[in-house]
Amino acid sequence: MNLNIKNSFTNELPADPILDNTRRQVYKSCFSFVTPKQTTNRELLHVSPEMLENLGLSEEDSKSKSFLKVVTGNQVLEGTKPYAMNYAGHQFGSWAGQLGDGRAINLGEVDHNTKLWTLQLKGAGETPYSRSADGLAVLRSSIREYLCSEAMHHLGVPTTRALSLALTGDQVLRDVMYDGNPAYEKGAVVTRVSPSFLRFGSYELFAARQDIDTLKTLVNFTINRHFSYLGKPNKEVYIQFFAEVSQRTLDMIIHWQRVGFVHGVMNTDNMSILGLTIDYGPYGWLEGFDFGWTPNTTDSKHKRYRYGNQPNIGLWNLYQLANALYPLIEEAEPIETILNQYKTDFDHKSLQMMRSKLGLQNSNENDKMLIQDLEDALQLTETDMTIFFRNLADFKKDQPLKGLKIIEEAFYVPSELTEPIIKKWNTWFHQYVKRLQDESVTDDQRNAKMNKVNPKYVLRNYMAQLAIDDADKGDYGLIGELFQLLKQPYEEQPELQKWYAKRPEWARNKVGCSMLSCSS
Ligand code: AMP
Ligand code: MG
Predict the structure, then answer these.
(1) Cα of 114 to ligand 2 centre, how many Å?
(2) Residue ranges of the domains in the chain?
């Protein structure tokens, strides 16, 4: 493997001087050097061809013994010194103190085609940040992260990427529903790739400890490496940096809302400083359109991270980041302006996003009402979000009464379509027809536009679970099939039409399908 390795993170930031891998608080350091765990019987299950190419690797390279050894942590990639990052975070609204990479080990950066990619092994063993856990990952959650992060990229959602999925050959003990029934599962490692894995919590850590020197070093590094277009770090640039992070965070969340993605654990340690979707844990996809839905059973009581609350939580998290950056900025007003801007931008951008989902190009003062009425209608009875918007593209503006027929496939319980509900839908379709008259595009042109923003295929929760069930039995074929399907989420792919379907009934309340925990 011939990779152009750079180690800017470890070369330019302060390292933990202690080298033994014991659990502890690590001060004044951005990372600790660690060695990945050796495993017994490793096996490569899948590789992302796009990521191979991005890194300058060939398919041949990915078939080599050393590739498998590197991506399972059994051989240190030449020229790198693996490390775990130190960070803190707010979890479910409360300060959690130091967290850090408890089961992620970074290798180093690969410089290819003027891009710098950090490679990270998730599930490669203990670090000083593993706290009471084992530093390992199970196959089930690794399949979910591997498939979803690549699928999100192809949906056009900013995200960290995945290079490979491999079995370690070792067994890992997990209590999936935290009910005192632990069981052994197959251990796995996903090699994740991103320009950076820095999180809001990376900055919160040093601010909370009033270690302003290290905070400043880290912020300067971040700006020089990832926001260099803002200029040399100074007070003014720190403010602009915060404005950039705020904007990217909002843009990412608007994309989530567009495709119906629910992250599930938007703790500040899971918020990328680059505005990328990061840490795929108990995430899920909306099936029935429901602002109140969350897949995460750990959050089932308060539903803090429910679909409809994601934009608010993005803002809440930015407040925490703002507090962390304050010692460098020392002025509240510009920060408040940025946070207020988030709210204004949210209103504007989410309206634009919803317009695009409806195929509307112009703006009309009644659009807010049209969208509000639609969101109300979608929640009258369980209505599949993906199928609804995809089918809506076939709506003809001179046939409002056919509207219901076009979308009827999206209803989970057709018997719930009572007269009043049917009437509401027909009223909405009439509103929509009226609105479409302000547009100059033809039905066909609108159809083509809508099909570029409303995906036909997303990684429905039960689809990932089917791949997991097969994989548990040693059949890994479905991982490849879904990977391939989700590479072109906006294309018709008629030969794979079977995946354009509502969640089957068996998956409604099945663990792994609609109920997920943080246990991974
Ligand atoms: P998460 O909820 O997965 O983002 O994890 C929150 C914190 O727990 C992070 O510091 C993780 O590194 C750590 N963590 C989660 N699972 C494990 C594990 N199996 N072993 C060690 N640390 C873990
Ligand atoms: Mg995390």
Answers:
(1) 28
(2) 5-197, 201-356, 362-440
